[in-house]
Design goal:
Layout (H helix, E strand, L loop, with lengths): L2 H7 L2 E9 L7 E11 L5 E11 L8 H7 L12 H9 L7 E4 L2 H7 L2 H4 L4 E3 H8 L8 H8 L15 H16 L4 H9 L22 H7 L5 H13 L18
Length: 256
């Protein structure tokens, strides 16, 4: 491996997507990936390093999840178990500066620090909330069609809800984010709860947070949802109505 290629690989972020058999801690039945790398000019781009592997979840795949990803028990017969295959994907030769996923908290449930080597994570959902707050919705596929990222080959991003195509789509969002703000900024946003661009419920539903009355904000700051609490607290703090250490809502809780 020549020095230029090795240098590029050290500027690599691997986007991960998982499909599962259910909700158990070892239920992964497919892992997909797509790399995003920085070129010599400092621009981030999508390269050809992508793929997917079936994983034996050690139990029957539920009908509910088959109806989403269409992976059947017969498809994973003879596949390796999660802890056997995960390190080779999550810790590739040459290393990564971070791992990434859309709503990364889901992938982090399965990709423990012992499997990733303690890699940092970027959540493209949380970053999309910050960078593109004007958009009406923030799912991976809605971002795909709202934004129509340059260079995304439609067929490679299909079928949706399969590991490699979903990682491929997410990688295009990540590439554009990295070319707009710094890696450190994305990591910081990813370490915090999601900052929702609009009030999700109550009398101010659909309005920007600065239009919400203080009473509604204080009520939402007590919500069970960490992203709603964080968003309401952020607006109260902006108004000078919330004192104390920042943030009062804990940063993204450990999922490991």
């Amino acid at each position: 491996m020549n020095a230029d290629l090795l240098a590029m690989i050290h500027e690599r972020i691997r986007v991960i997507d998982l499909e599962t058999a259910g909700g158990g801690p070892q239920d992964v039945c497919e892992i997909g990936w797509q790399d995003v790398v920085r070129d010599a000019g400092g621009r981030w781009l999508i390269n050809e390093e992508r793929g997917s592997l079936f994983v034996d979840p050690g139990r029957a795949i539920s009908a509910d999840t088959m109806a989403v990803h269409h992976i059947r028990d017969i498809d994973v017969v003879g596949a390796p178990f999660w802890k056997q295959i995960a390190p080779s994907v999550l810790r590739p030769e040459g290393g990564v500066v971070a791992l990434a996923a859309h709503r990364a908290g889901f992938e982090m449930r399965y990709c423990s620090a012992s499997l990733t080597g303690g890699a940092r994570w970027i959540c493209t959902w949380k970053c999309a909330l910050r960078l593109w707050p004007h958009l009406p919705r923030f799912s991976n596929q809605m971002l795909r069609y709202q934004r129509m990222p340059e260079g995304l080959i439609h067929e490679l991003g299909l079928p949706a809800h399969r590991a490699m195509p979903d990682a491929y789509v997410t990688a295009h969002h990540l590439r554009d984010m990295l070319n707009e703000v710094s890696l450190d900024q994305l990591l910081l946003w990813s370490s915090e709860p999601g900052l929702l661009p609009r009030v999700p419920s109550g009398p101010a539903r659909g309005k920007s947070w600065d239009q919400a009355p203080e009473a509604a904000l204080r009520n939402l700051a007590l919500d069970r949802d960490i992203d709603i609490r964080f968003s309401a607290e952020t607006e109260l703090r902006r108004r000078g109505e919330l004192l104390g250490p920042e943030p009062l809502t804990p940063v993204q809780p450990s999922l490991l």
